[in-house]
Amino acid sequence: MENLLVLLDKIQQLSPLPVFAQDTVIVQNAGMQHWLNMSLAEQRGISMNMRYALPSQFLWNLIRNLASDEDVPEQSPYSREVLAWRIDTLLAANEVIDDDAFKVASDYWQADSKNSGNNSYSEAEQLKRYQLACQLADLYEQYLIFRPEWIHAWHQGEFTAFDHQASASSSDTIEEGKQTEASNAIWQGKLWHLLVRDQPYDPRELVALAIKNLNNVDRLKAQALPHRLSFFGINAMAPLWLEFINALSEQIDVHFFHLNPCYAYWGDVVTEKNAIEAWLKGTDFSAGQKTADENNSENDQQLGLFTDVESNDFESKDLADINQQVGNPLLANLGQQGREFMALLYQYSTINIDVFESAVADLASENSKSADQANPSAEAIAQASVLASVQQDILSLTDARSPKSTKTLQSPKVDGSILITSAHSALREVQGLHDWLLHQFNQDKSLTPKDVLVMCPQVEQYAPYVNAVFTRGWQDIADEVPPLPCSIADRISKDAEPLVAAFAQLLTLPDSRFQVSSLIALLRLPAMQARFGINLDDIEKITHWLEVSCVHWGLDKAHKQQVLAQSEAQETETLSGTSDSFTWQQGFSRLMRGFAFADHSVIYQNQMLLPTIEGSDSELLGKLMLIIEQLQLTAINMSKARTASQWQQFLFDLLQQLFDDENDNGLNVVRSAVESLVEYCQHAAYTSDISLAVIRDFLNSHFSQPDPGRQFMIGQVTFCSMLPMRSIPFKIIAVLGLNDGEFPRQRQPLSFDLMTTTPAQLGDRSRRGDDRYLFLEAIISARQALYLSYQGKNIRNNKDRQPSLVLKELMEYLARGYGWQLLGLNAETETGAQTNTLSQVRQLPMQAFSEKNYLGRFGSFDANWLNLRRTKVTDSSVHNQTENSNSQTIDNSMAIIDDSLSVTDVIRFYQHPSRYYGQHTLYLYLDNSHTVINDVEPFVPNHLDSYLLRQELLNYYLAPAQSKQSCDDILLSAKLSGNLPDLPNTDELIKGWQKDSEDFSQFIIAELTQNDALTIAPIDCSVTLDLANILTNQTLLANGLYSKSDLEILKTVLPQHLTLNCKLTIVDNKALFYRSSSAKAKDLFTLYLHQLIIQIAQADEAQENADIFANISATHGYYFDTKSQKPSQFYFSDIEDAKGLLLGLIVTFYLGQHQPLLLNGDIGEKIRKSKVFEQAQFEQFWSDSNSFQAFGDDAYVQYFWPQCPDYEEISPRLLTLYQPMFDALQTVKQGANK
User: Fold this and answer.
1) Which are the contacts of 984, defined by CB distance < 8 A and separation ≥ 6?
2) Which residues contact 1165 (CB under 8 A, 6 or more apart)?
3) Under DSSP, is residue 1017 helix (H, G, I), strand (E, B) or coil?
4) Alpha-carbon distance 999 to 954, whole Å?
């Protein structure tokens, strides 16, 4: 491609145009235009007076000028976009509906309707008709380019079937296919005849007229023909256009700068499969004849280097003949599209200027350079890289696998010029590429980000990972790592622009449920925030309001019933569609009336008012109500059908009402799409009203088109989709996503596409053919290195996955031609080692923090993952696992020693030690995720809400005189809170909870006293512990739980004296605890800890609150077993060595402030209930799939222990701390004496 650039520059220099004349260059896309312009500017110092154009629009304008017919519109009425609206008009016309020939088409978009007018069809029917029109417009555009003879026949009124492609195995099937094809040809031909009648400018006739006028010299004087015309980098063009360009070349200079991958004649090469088939049949095969395999894209996977015929089946002469027919297998299998285009060009009289340069010439030593730059010496070839050698094979039409090849090696030829990588996921592909690129930049100081191109079949699938890996702050990696700025081109507007996605969502308002999360997403748009004067803090406040007011969906009662009726959920409608619960109307009412009434919650007119709004917050609430009101009006008005110009006015008004940020590119995208709608309808003379469904489909289709011009080659690492005719040379080219079934990409043909049922012709294009040629261009466009990546492992079960066929062909070529070892490329031993150490395929570990990720030639640069890995690695004991460089251990000299401690903190610590350490020491809030409001109203009671209500009722029944609310008020408040389902059986559920709470309270009262009620009066008390000599306590240290490093930490953090503060409810000489829930490990630990404190206080009369503790005999806990629906009772009393046990708990508490400890009462309880608890049982508990959340899935546990630790290392401390508790635990069976 660089040589073509030099040739273009030389032609312009040797044959300059007039000073003010523009040099016209035709390119296929904006990417090629950008590269060509920048490259010319780099060579000349400036690039000016260059006119770039796309082929279709330029040729149409030129033909229009040459036809000299003023009635021919500037916009072709036969372009796909305009043609769709013209076809839509005809499909709705009575002339088409009443014609039996169109029965197939009419039956498709018409349901059971027998109507005859456009306005009387349903919205769904109009949408199906428009979608059919779009598909037909696309087909007709293909017919115009590749089958102009059909178009001409239809124009003349000849509606006959064409030659059927006999690919069926049964004669009956063939006959049926012919009949179907004949029917499709007739109605498509008639439809085209009607289109030409309305707009009698057949493109084929216009081309013929333009060619005729080219020969009229006098006529040409009035035409603005370009002085010179250059086609650059185009590798496919329809025969119709080539015919016109050939005629044009007789009047002006026309240059085709075509990238030919091979300097030898390769028009007769065939695929290896076709050559073998021809040999087996004993026939001669010609490349000019298309095979069924090449016609049918579904059989494309059969083309390749893999056959069922062994080489032993051939004689040496036969094998030589086959190799000669194939030439280079990569070129034969991947280059069909380029071969056919060359064949089309050779049909015309041309002057060929061949500029070929050997791919290995620059890499040869000076003493061995060959005079023939296209045929380097053997020494140069031997010194060349693998990439250059493969490129040279393609260029010279040689096969490295051939016995005669000079490249036949005794050992594999391997270097870093071609790297094939296998990963488990798209994220790991991007991470692996990032690490590899950093190594390339370290090795080559001349390499810059603009020298790297990364291609993907669909860049949208990789864009989120690219942003996460490449665009993060460089300080997160390391200071010595160079930055890798990147840009992502070819993104579709709907994914790249949040405002475009939001606008597409607004188009669904008439069908919307007005979910609360959708509104919050809208409010987060900067353009909407600018319009209504709100900020992110306001949004957080609004989110809180909507959460407490229980707004989920629905504008009001009427809207809610309408949505339920449309969804045909009759059962749901009966249950919850009769009230305004969970709607915006009810939420606003609760907030506004609460603002006006009082500063506390109050029930008024059967509604619980919320005192959430205060002062100036009322202004923000007003803005929120205004937004909802405007959206409601938009939903009502949007349902009406309008003409294209009326839709333009309506949608522009909508943009002005909701968005106010002219700098947002999304607004320009939306406006451009709407303007395109009006433009196409004007050119198509489409004046009918358009339904919302059609508008939505048109705009979504427009928003889903990639923009190839933006973010391409802007001086950064360029990520882009794989697009045809963009074979720009880069030093490094990477291709991601080369997975089987995903590339080459497939396009499902339409059942009525006549081109798929008739023999293929020279010059026909297919999506798979384009992709195969794209891959060939990627190989020959890389100058230093080619990086190929695919997902070769299943991320769920680690099973092998196949690469794309094109990648597999290249791998097979490298294996057989260059000795690459590919067998066992994905097989790993349990230790992670490759079973085949010679494999040239790089297998990435599944996780970025894997130790293997930092080994080998291309180890990762990400220090964060490495530090985290070191933090989590379990050393000889659990104590040592946090002593690495990033151990998260705080500086002990900065520790604040407090001599006062709340028992509540100790309980909270032992409930979840690693979470307590993460939050209180590291300020690490892993579970502090962004609040997501639920769009779905509750249909079953939330366990937490039901527990809170039962606990409140229990408190009331135990001590009604101390309750601030009556029982009726408690029940009514719960019902009106919005936390419970709005269902007929909700009252029964509440009554059931009330009955359970009342029975449970009576049980507790009966166990404690003979009175009808209790006096619940918690008493503040404390106990003082002497910790001065605790670290010399031999009993405490005898079990070996504390390492030397632990003791050093404890020396600096333990206070001399500690005061433990607690609250006790004492009834009938018992410390009382109760919960309206099943007893959990944390409840038992609470009883245990308080009993230890009580016994220490009783043993020391010098304690300040000795009188409070003196008469307490035991600590009792009462709980309501939710499974058996029965109360349960536990208690502790007379625990041996209470002081030693409490001191052990306190010391471990202080140690847990400085390192994560794997302690949990749930593990201890599991050990107690299990007869045998060893490593296997521990691992099952760690990843229990039957539980709602396995122990190892907890965010903090997973952060500090990514893998299940050795049970023997943690069991000593677990048993020491929890075994005495469960040994001392006493259970009171129901019916036993008090």
Assistant:
1) 575
2) 1081, 1084, 1218, 1222
3) coil
4) 9
Dihedrals φ, ψ of 620, to 5°? -65, -40
Q: What is the 3-state secondary structure (H, E, C) of 186-197?
A: HHHHHHHHHHHH
CATH number of 80-200: 1.10.10.160
Question: Could you tell me which CATH number the domain at 2-72+211-257 has?
Answer: 3.40.50.10930
Return the residue matching tokens 């064409």: 162
Whole-Å CA distances, 1006 to 40, 1012, 1068: 97, 8, 12
For strands 1070-1075 and 1114-1121, give the pairing.
Answer: parallel
Alpha carbon distance 1198, 912 (integer Å): 13
pLDDT digits (tens, 9 = 90+) for 512-556: 999 999 999 999 999 999 999 999 999 999 999 999 999 999 999
- Would you list the domain boundaries of the chain? 2-72+211-257, 80-200, 272-396, 418-491+709-747+763-847, 506-703, 892-927+1014-1228, 952-1008
3-state secondary structure of 1198: helix
Secondary structure of residue 52 in the 3-state scheme: strand
Q: Are 389 and 805 in contact (CB under 8 A)?
A: no
* CA diameter of the chain: 125
Q: Which two tokens stand for residue 532?
A: 């209504």
Beta bridge partners of 447: none
Q: For strands 418-422 and 782-790, give the pairing.
A: parallel
Look at 348-357, 413-422, 485-494, 840-849 and tell me which has the smallest mean pLDDT: 348-357
Burial of 293 (0-12, 13-18, 19+ CB in 10 A): middle
Question: To which CATH superfamily is domain 418-491+709-747+763-847 assigned?
Answer: P-loop containing nucleotide triphosphate hydrolases (3.40.50.300)
Question: In 639-734, which residue ranges form alpha helices assigned H by DSSP?
Answer: 644-658, 665-683, 692-703
Q: What is the DSSP string of 929-974?
A: PPP---SSPPSS--HHHHHHHHHHHHHHHH-GGG-SS-HHHHHHHH
Task: Label the pairing between strands 1070-1075 and 1066-1067.
Answer: antiparallel
Q: How many CB atoms lie within 10 A of CB 741?
A: 12
Tokens of 570: 């009759």
pLDDT above 90 covers a percentage of the chain that reads 33
Interior CA angle at 438 toward 433 and 444, to 5°?
120
Using an 8 Å Cβ cutoff, are 741 and 14 in contact?
A: no
Name which of 266-270, 374-378, 593-597, 849-853 the model is least confident about.
Answer: 374-378
CB 404 within 8 A of CB 376: no
In this predicted structure, the answer to whether residue 476 has a pLDDT above a threshold of 60 is no
pTM equals 0.80
Closest CA to 121 of 677, 511, 689, 507: 689
Q: Are 792 and 422 in contact (CB under 8 A)?
A: yes
For tokens 């309501």, name the residue.
Answer: 1120
DSSP string, 1092-1158: HHHHHHHH-TTSTTHHHHTT--EEEEEEEETTTTEEEEEEE---TTHHHHHHHHHHHHHHTTTS---
Q: Which helix (H) or strand (E) holds 316?
A: helix 316-326
- Element of type H or E holding 527: helix 526-532
Distance CA 742, CA 915 (A): 43
Average pLDDT over residues 30-47: 87
Q: Distance between CA 369 and CA 366 in Å, rounded? A: 5
CA 951, 956, 957 angle in degrees (round to 5)?
100
Q: Alpha-carbon distance 924 to 909, whole Å? A: 15
2-72+211-257 and 418-491+709-747+763-847 share one fold: yes
Q: To which residue do tokens 């309750």 refer?
A: 963
Is there a contact between 884 and 873 (Cβ–Cβ < 8 Å)?
yes
pLDDT at 835: 43
Average pLDDT score over residue span 563-587: 69
Positive/negative CA dihedral, 297, 743, 489, 729? negative
